[in-house]
Structures are given as structure tokens and as C-alpha cells.
TrEMBL record:
Its main location: cytoplasm. This is Beta sliding clamp. Coiled coil: none annotated. Forms a ring-shaped head-to-tail homodimer around DNA. Confers DNA tethering and processivity to DNA polymerases and other proteins. Acts as a clamp, forming a ring around DNA (a reaction catalyzed by the clamp-loading complex) which diffuses in an ATP-independent manner freely and bidirectionally along dsDNA. Initially characterized for its ability to contact the catalytic subunit of DNA polymerase III (Pol III), a complex, multichain enzyme responsible for most of the replicative synthesis in bacteria; Pol III exhibits 3'-5' exonuclease proofreading activity. It comes from the Bacteria. Residues 1-119 form the DNA polymerase III beta sliding clamp N-terminal domain. Belongs to the beta sliding clamp family. One of its GO terms (cellular component) is cytoplasm. Residues 128-241 form the DNA polymerase III beta sliding clamp central domain.
Length: 368
């Protein structure tokens, strides 16, 4: 194998696929990145057998072939090279020469033939969604994915696609995040699959803030995201996701309209003291025209007041401040609704116009 590429093309390609490199595998070859040159294409591949990323880069092909190089070594090496053309060539024993300007390195690689192939997802039915929309949908739900693996299905997010509607749902037993959007799919095509949180995190890092399309397709127990010259293949989580629609209350007894930023800032300030306690507790008193937020800790107490428009009954309720802050941080609207039923029922956060997001947060029971 022998290729010549610009340093930037190589580095960007390696950094993209490196996200799938296994950090603790019993197979040493999974700690490497495959460079495969065939059919006039240069392909970089990494996988941990759960998620696989392949990316095609531009360059001059002098000889076809393949090699697997240590991810850590090759990425650090390319990063420190001068901004110039880089030549990579291998011999029949996978010894690899890397030359750039006046620098030359020789490292031992592994056979590309030993690298596991990524699962093939060649379903002709593809759904398209703008990159920026999918990136925002992930950002606005991923924080609610469960971290603990006591219920493995909750370590992923449910993606549902029906006709031209797409939704992403994540919950961890304490809060729920739901984000909706539109796809270009107008056929009678339905997807309801749970995608690992890690996969969504890595996809989000690859997506850009533009309207270029991502193509999504599924085959068997794998899903494929095609983003420009990069393909991300992931294993899907098996099991039945919670029926989230039953969890979200359809009615409320108290609804508050208020400034998202004012509420977010007050919650953050109250959390400075709340974090000193066991459960980040903040208390809320909903009055006719004011929301009062308080927090007491051994080191002191805080009192915040925010103007609101209240519909329905006044209410006292308490929450873990962390869950509110993470939801509010990812809402882009200037004003929001907070909906309540009782002091021991969830709070629902909604936009004042439309239904494109819903957040649900369980309260903390407080003995007065």
C-alpha cells in the first residue's frame, strides 16, 4: 500500500473514526485504525464491535493494500507533523513508513485482513433528515439517557420514524426528554428502535450545523447513518422500551408561563447551595404572579423570585435542581410552560407554541 495525502485530510479522517476505537477490548486489533486502499478510494475504519465508523478521504493512490495502525500512535504522530503532504507506505510484513517533509517514521502495523468487517446495512429504504435538526434533537435529549446499566434498554434513546415525523425519547427513571422533528420521508415506512446513547453522542460530534442531509437506514439489528463521506454503523439495543406516552400527563391543574432564561439563571444560583445537600434539593412556591425558589443548606440559604403568569391553583413542590438545569440548558425558546397536577406528580415543560419538545421531571417528596 502506498498513498499521499495532505496532513489535514489524514488528521480529520483519523479523528473522525477514532471515536469508535475500543479502549478496553480483548482483541488488540480493535485498538487500531484500518487504512484500506482499493477501487481508487482511501477508507479509514474503526470499530469496537458495537459501533463502527468509516470515513473516505481524498489523496493520491500509488498502490492498493491495507494495514491496521495503533490509533493512539498514528493520531498523535499525524497531529504533530508539519502542514505538508504525508506519504504512507507498507511492505508485505505490515511495516509502515510515514514520511512528511524532512520527517520519517517506521512503525509496525497489523494485517488489514484480520480487521473485522463492519455489518452491512444495504437497505434501499432510506430516510433523510437535515444534519442540524438531528444534531439539535440529540443535544436536547441525550442528557436524559440512563448512565447506570441496571436497565440496559434505558442506556439508549428511542428513535421513532413514521411517515414524515421523527421523534427521539430518552428517560432514566427520574426525568424524560422528548424531541420531535420532520423528515423527508413520505412513504409508509416505520422505525421504532433504541439506539445506544454512546452512538448518538458520537454521531452528534460528527454532524455539522448545516442543512445537508443525513441518510438513515436499518437492517436486522443494526442502523446506519450516512453523513457526507462518513458512515456510522451501530448495533441496536434489544428489549422493550418503556411506553413513554403513558407517563406524560394529558391534563394539568396548574400551568405557569415564564422566561426560560430567568428561570434557568435562578435555578443555577439556587443550585450553588443545593449541591451542598444530599439531593440537590430546591423548593418552588407557585403564587399568583411570582415563582419563589428557595434552597437551604448547612452553609446558608437562597431566595429567588421570578415573575410568572399562573393559570390554575397555587402550589408548593420540590425538585432535584440538576434535572431542571440540564433540561433548561438545552431549550432554545425564550418562554416556556411549566405544567403541574399535584405536589407529588411530575412537572412537564413545554414550548408556548407548538409541541416539538416535552420534558418531564419527577419531584422530590418533602416532609414539612
Amino acid at each position: 500500500m502506498r498513498i499521499i495525502c495532505s496532513k489535514n485530510n489524514l488528521l480529520n479522517g483519523f479523528l473522525t473514526v477514532q471515536k469508535a476505537v475500543s479502549s478496553r477490548s480483548s482483541l488488540p486489533i480493535l485498538e487500531g485504525i484500518l487504512i484500506e486502499v482499493e477501487e481508487k478510494k482511501i477508507k479509514l475504519v474503526a470499530t469496537d464491535l458495537e459501533i463502527g465508523i468509516e470515513s473516505y478521504i481524498e489523496g493520491e493512490i500509488l498502490e492498493e493494500g491495507s494495514v491496521v495502525l495503533s490509533s493512539k500512535i498514528i493520531v498523535d504522530l499525524i497531529r504533530k507533523l508539519p502542514d505538508a503532504s504525508v506519504e504512507i507506505k507498507t511492505d508485505e510484513n505490515n511495516r509502515t513508513w510515514i514520511q512528511c517533509a524532512s520527517s520519517e517514521f517506521v512503525i509496525q502495523g497489523q494485517s488489514g485482513l484480520d480487521f473485522p468487517e463492519l455489518p452491512e446495512v444495504n437497505n434501499q429504504q432510506k430516510i433523510e433528515i437535515p444534519q442540524d435538526l438531528l444534531k439539535h434533537m440529540i443535544r436536547q435529549t441525550i442528557f436524559s439517557v440512563a448512565v447506570e446499566e441496571t436497565r440496559p434498554i434505558l442506556t439508549g434513546a428511542l428513535m421513532e420514524i413514521k411517515e414524515d415525523q421523527i421523534s427521539l425519547v430518552a428517560l432514566d427513571g427520574y426525568r424524560l426528554a422528548l424531541r420531535k422533528g420532520k423528515t423527508s420521508n413520505h412513504e409508509n415506512y416505520f422505525i421504532s428502535e433504541v439506539i445506544p446513547g454512546r452512538t448518538l453522542n458520537e454521531i452528534s460530534k460528527i454532524l455539522t450545523e448545516d442543512e445537508e442531509m443525513v441518510q438513515i437506514s436499518k437492517m436486522g439489528n443494526h442502523i446506519l447513518f450516512e453523513v457526507g463521506k462518513t458512515n456510522i454503523t451501530s448495533r441496536l439495543l434489544e428489549g422493550e422500551f418503556i411506553n413513554y406516552k403513558q407517563i406524560i400527563p394529558e391534563e394539568y391543574k396548574t400551568r405557569v408561563k415564564l422566561s426560560k432564561n430567568a428561570f434557568f439563571d435562578s435555578c443555577e444560583r439556587a443550585a450553588l447551595l443545593a449541591r451542598q445537600g444530599k439531593n440537590n434539593l430546591i423548593k418552588m412556591q407557585l403564587n399568583q404572579d411570582t415563582l419563589v425558589i428557595t434552597s437551604n443548606a448547612e452553609i446558608g440559604k437562597v431566595h429567588e423570585e421570578i415573575p410568572i403568569e399562573l393559570e390554575g391553583e397555587e402550589l408548593k413542590i420540590a425538585f432535584n435542581s440538576k434535572y431542571f438545569i440540564e433540561a433548561l440548558r438545552n431549550i432554545d425558546d425564550e418562554e416556556i410552560f411549566l405544567e403541574f397536577t399535584t405536589s407529588v406528580s411530575p412537572c412537564v415543560i413545554k414550548p408556548t407554541e407548538g409541541e416539538y419538545f416535552t420534558y418531564l421531571i419527577l419531584p422530590v417528596r418533602v416532609i414539612e
